């Protein structure tokens, strides 16, 4: 692991590090906020998965999350959204290839060698973090925005014992039925649509639900509403009788101004689960 | 108007009064909580519409609402759920007739003479209240439980200029498709189902929405879930992109223990709209 930078922030440390990942077969960069409490005790962790085009940097600099995480004594992890590098497969479209890993393990060439963001988020990066930082593996929660909301929900729903709570800002909710999903799944996973279902949070929510609490925030003026398909997720939550809060905020769009407006409440929501 | 009782409560007055109503052609009883502030200024009003079998008394004694209304300086109105009296039409079923007015104006005999709870809640009782108490007609909000949640939602959606915000606990959400609805609408309104649509909050929400904020709470262990049909309402809210919070609370049932557990948050929600 290499330290790229460390800055004091809200009494704690905002670091940026890189490491070799077996999952993606390349060097990966991530941000990590450690609150002051981590000097004395291992602290709980909130994962923040970012959306299309983002790196580890966007939420780390624009979400305002560290303020509230510092108050609550929670660490924040900001992973990248895909493998990156000149030798790594890519595509000219902003929503495919680098910056658009979609939190799956690709099975199709030329993507299969590097585009394994599912394993990166659930195996490689946790292994590194829990071996190198004062973090409590038994107290993890997960959130994310847009493609990252999709990642947070599908990962939590699939690995419910690993996360105490899950939330999402404007998640891609039903990718098997959206142009944000069909294109990427057919590219990364192939044309067998049965393989896609494990990566659709509305399907997973409807089929099994989540044992902990769920919080979803969505802006009514989101310019990508039709691609996100929040109806499918709200429907699945209600069908499942999932312990959940699903909110639509009038006039908010898809930007970080939306995320930062409600970040305090997401951190408080997770803190309640992490300190139970 | 007759004063039946007045008791000091949370620094204010919990009264019970009766009056002749032109809408229902009979004497009606209601509860009214006036916070201490009403001694000095006119105060905003939150209407609480009760569910099947309830009188004015149930929420007044079991919801715990006065505590929070006193903190916020808001008056609470607890109307009855139907006309009552020996000479008034009734039915042996608990969900039809007295105690089950369903917040409509009946057009069918023998119900049409007295069962006009829509006009009672929106005309008769407001006229009386604003002429006799220090209440601010320009600051009203409305909530309710079960059949009363249905009433609150349908009334607010139909008269959006009269209410700044609306909330509901476990509302009957889609009565045109439920045995809590079809039976009562066919009895009170007749078999022409077009007449029923004006009294279905999921239909109204889908068609027009509400200009103010909306809060819906539903227990996941509600024994009447299938009769309430919360799916229809969550679906309509999302379709409409309604500014709304729709929450499912794990393990809560249909009782006043559910209502009182979340009453503080409903009063705070309305206070924010009423003091804007």
Q: How many H/I helical runs of chain A?
A: 9
Number of strands of chain A: 9
Radius of gyration of chain A (Å): 17 Å
Helix content of chain A: 25-40%
Mean pLDDT of chain A: 97
Summed up, the domain count of chain A is: 1
What order do the helices and strands of chain A follow? EEEEHHEHEHEHHEHHEH
Strand-pairing-aware structural class of chain A = alpha/beta
Low confidence ranges of chain A: none
The CATH topology of chain A turns out to be Rossmann fold
Strand portion of chain A: 15-25%
Detailed description of the structure:
The first copy, chain A, has 276 residues and is an alpha/beta fold. Chain A has 9 helices and 9 strands. Chain A has helices at residues 57-62, 65-72, 117-132, 147-158, 182-189, 201-207, 225-228, 230-240, 256-274, and strands at residues 2-9, 12-21, 26-34, 43-49, 75-79, 135-144, 166-169, 214-219, 244-249. In chain A, the strands form 2 sheets. In chain A, strands 1-2-3-5-4-6 form a 6-stranded mixed β-sheet. In chain A, strands 7-8-9 form a 3-stranded parallel β-sheet, with helices on both faces. The mean pLDDT of chain A is 97.
Any chance you could write out the topology, listing elements then pairs?
The structure is a homodimer of 276-residue chains.
Chain A: E1 2-9, E2 12-21, E3 26-34, E4 43-49, H1 57-62, H2 65-72, E5 75-79, H3 117-132, E6 135-144, H4 147-158, E7 166-169, H5 182-189, H6 201-207, E8 214-219, H7 225-228, H8 230-240, E9 244-249, H9 256-274
Helix pairs in contact in A: 2-9, 6-8
């Amino acid at each position: 692991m290499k330290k790229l930078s460390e800055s004091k922030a809200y009494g704690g440390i905002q670091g940026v590090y890189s490491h070799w990942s077996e999952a993606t077969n390349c060097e990966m960069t991530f941000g990590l906020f450690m609150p002051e409490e981590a000097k004395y005790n291992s602290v709980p962790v909130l994962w923040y998965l970012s959306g299309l085009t983002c790196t580890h940097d966007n939420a780390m600099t624009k979400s305002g999350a560290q303020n509230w995480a510092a108050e609550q004594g929670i660490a924040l992890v900001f992973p990248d959204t895909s493998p990156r590098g000149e030798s790594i497969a890519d595509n000219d479209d902003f929503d495919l290839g680098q910056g658009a890993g979609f939190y799956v393990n690709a099975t199709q060439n030329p993507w299969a060698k590097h585009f394994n963001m599912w394993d990166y988020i659930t195996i490689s990066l946790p292994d590194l973090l829990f071996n190198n930082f004062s973090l409590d593996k038994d107290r993890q929660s997960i959130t994310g925005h847009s493609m990252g909301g999709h990642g947070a929900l599908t990962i939590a729903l699939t690995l419910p014992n690993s996360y105490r709570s899950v939330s999402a800002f404007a998640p891609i909710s039903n990718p098997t039925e959206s142009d944000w999903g069909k294109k990427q799944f057919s590219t990364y996973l192939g044309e067998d649509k049965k393989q896609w279902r494990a990566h659709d949070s509305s399907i997973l929510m409807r089929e099994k639900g989540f044992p902990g609490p769920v919080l979803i925030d969505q802006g009514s003026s989101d310019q990508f509403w039709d691609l996100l398909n929040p109806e499918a997720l709200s429907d699945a939550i209600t069908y499942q009788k999932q312990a959940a809060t699903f909110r639509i905020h009038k006039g908010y769009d898809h930007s970080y101004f939306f995320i930062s407006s409600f970040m305090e409440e997401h951190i408080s929501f997770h803190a309640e689960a992490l300190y139970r």
